[in-house]
Design brief:
The structure holds 2 protein chains of 2 kinds.
Chain A: E1 7-9, H1 14-23, E2 27-30, H2 36-41, E3 49-52, E4 62-64, E5 68-72, H3 77-81, H4 84-89, H5 91-97, H6 103-108, H7 111-117, H8 123-130, E6 134-139, E7 142-147, H9 148-151, E8 152-154, E9 157-158, E10 165-172, E11 179-185, E12 195-203, E13 209-217, E14 224-225, H10 227-233, H11 240-251, H12 263-287
Parallel strand pairs in A: 1-3, 2-3
Antiparallel strand pairs in A: 4-5, 5-10, 6-7, 6-10, 8-9, 11-12, 12-13, 13-14
Chain B: E1 4-11, E2 14-21, H1 26-33, E3 52-55, E4 58-61, E5 74-76, H2 89-96, H3 106-119, H4 125-131, H5 143-162
Parallel strand pairs in B: 1-5
Antiparallel strand pairs in B: 1-2, 3-4, 3-5
Helix pairs in contact in B: 2-5
The chains are: A alpha+beta, B alpha+beta.
Bound molecules: flavin-adenine dinucleotide and FE2/S2 (inorganic) cluster (2 copies).
């Protein structure tokens, strides 16, 4: 299995990437290659021009600002796992990344590649949904920033247009202390998840829900936030009844079916994992030292 | 017309200059152009880990990297481990513990575990199993591989303590 012929480009600056994208209609960007290379080896994808981003050093960075955590598209998954700022500010990212493939794939695979590929159960897409991410898309002479709902279009489909590159991903980070949980089910560790659920929350002094976000992925073609539940849960005491309500809302997402996994099974997992994740996030919040 | 590039790569300490098709994978470059057939191709789509080599020290899948991307870099393959007949402690432990049967998966696992042990000199069994998750073995059932890696960590620790 070999890729079909292409013309290879390895620009070193963003401006050069954008110029090449503008010039060559039938082109693909190569990030970590952990999804694109298999597709090219199988010849599912046969671009005439391959534009390699691996020499573009200015696309690899992690920047922690007051309310956001910004990642350059070419930041490797392993680099994020090992970043002290991310470990401190966003421990749920570290948990999520431990499920992304294997050490060899994380050494090459990038956050921008994962989010551009937009697999329905990709952990980093789940993280983007959970943290109300913003996406900076660049084309020659122009730039736009989209929110998650505008960016997510469908199965393996985003708002990135021909001629455009994903340049930066900005997560809106929560101020500590908060409770969090990431629960997923995959057939083997490191496989793509069948279903994954993430939760962020804070409780008031009296123990009621103050703020909450829940993202469910692997069920519908794009990661889903449980917005209805999130709004209704504010002010409620988190116990069995509330966890059950969240689980029922997750089970109400219209589920996909494929040759390996039925819709009914995805729905079952969404229900079970949502219950567990909410329970765990509450327990974690309560066990923190609040002083 | 094919698209080619001249590349210069150091493999196991030796420098090579070659003209390659840009669509040549790094694994095919090692096997077909350099004759280094110790690196195995199992699936050619990133799943089995048999093709794992180290590029500037990092264990990566050579079926998912292009040879042109290794231009100017240093690559290590299984052929670069032993010095003549003298096996590395990791290789010795694999032999002692029967951590291979057919041996197809072994080069990729050795490359992965060599990197892993440099970063985690005192791993738990769970750490080893996690690090091994990206390499498939159809023969051993993994237990002997895990044992061999833990034994290597032990041996290296004793050598360090003695020094
Ligand atoms: C064995 C194995 C197991 C895996 N398991 C998981 C898993 O459990 N969870 C998971 O989430 N992923 C998993 N993956 C995929 C993950 O490793 C990839 O990192 C990810 O899907 C793609 O990232 P990449 O950097 O490798 O991108 P590439 O493969 O290089 O690119 C992917 C796609 O995005 C496009 N693209 C890349 N960068 C940009 C950009 N900046 N702007 C616009 N388009 C761009 C490319 O053109 C291509 O279409 C696995 C992969 C393998 C091989
Ligand atoms: S041949 Fe590269 S991972 Fe299987
Ligand atoms: S020893 Fe045969 S595949 Fe591992």
């Amino acid at each position: 299995m070999k890729p079909a012929r292409f013309t290879y480009h390895d620009p070193a600056a963003i401006a050069d990437v954008l110029a090449l994208l503008a010039e060559h209609e039938d082109s693909r960007l190569l990030a970590g290659g952990q999804s694109l290379m298999p597709m090219m080896n199988f010849r599912f994808v046969q671009p005439a021009h391959l534009i390699d981003l691996n020499r573009v050093a200015e696309l690899g960075y992690i920047r922690a600002d007051a309310g956001t955590l910004a990642f350059g598209a070419m930041t490797r998954q392993r680099q994020i796992q090992r970043d002290a700022n991310v470990q401190q500010a966003c421990p749920i990212m570290i948990e999520a990344l431990s499920h992304v493939g294997h050490r060899q794939t994380r050494a090459r695979g990038t956050i921008g590649g994962s989010i551009s590929h937009f697999d329905p159960s990709a952990e980093l897409c789940n993280m983007a949904a959970l943290h109300d991410a913003q996406f900076v898309l660049a084309r020659k002479g122009n730039q736009r920033t989209l929110g998650f709902d505008q960016f997510a279009r469908g199965y393996l489909t985003t708002a990135i247009e021909p001629g455009e590159m994903l340049q930066e991903i900005r997560l809106q980070r929560w101020a500590k202390p908060y409770g969090f949980a990431f629960e997923e089910f995959a057939m083997r560790h490191g496989d793509f998840a069948i279903c994954a659920v993430s939760v962020l929350l804070t409780l008031t002094g009296s123990g009621a829900i103050d703020a909450i976000a829940i993202a469910v992925s692997g069920v519908a073609p794009t990661p889903q936030r449980l917005r209805g539940f999130e709004a209704a849960a504010r002010g409620q005491m988190p116990g069995h009844a509330l966890c059950r309500e969240a689980a029922l809302q997750a089970a109400a997402i219209e589920a996909m079916s494929d040759a390996y996994t039925t819709a009914a099974y995805r729905t079952h997992l969404a229900r079970v994992l949502t219950y567990r994740a909410l329970e765990k996030a509450v327990a974690r919040f309560k066990s923190q030292d609040m002083t | 017309m094919s698209d080619t590039r001249n590349i210069s790569v150091v493999v196991n300490g030796k420098s090579y200059q070659r003209t390659v098709d840009t669509r040549r994978t790094l694994g095919d470059f090692l096997r077909l152009d350099l004759g280094l057939t110790g690196t195995h191709f199992g699936c050619e789509h990133g799943v089995c880990g048999a093709c794992t080599v180290r590029v500037d020290g990092t264990a990566v899948r050579s079926c998912l990297m292009l040879a042109v991307q290794a231009n100017g870099k240093s690559v290590q393959t299984v052929e670069g481990m032993a010095e003549g007949d003298i096996l590395t402690p990791l290789q010795t432990a694999f032999r002692d513990r029967h951590a291979l049967q057919c041996g197809f998966c072994t080069p990729g696992i050795l490359m992965t575990m060599a990197e892993f042990l440099e970063e985690n000199p005192a791993p738990s069994e769970a750490d080893v199993r996690d690090a091994l998750s990206g390499n498939l073995c159809r023969c051993t059932g993994y237990q002997n591989i895990v044992d061999a890696v833990l034994q290597t960590a032990d041996t290296l620790r004793k050598t360090r303590d003695a020094a």
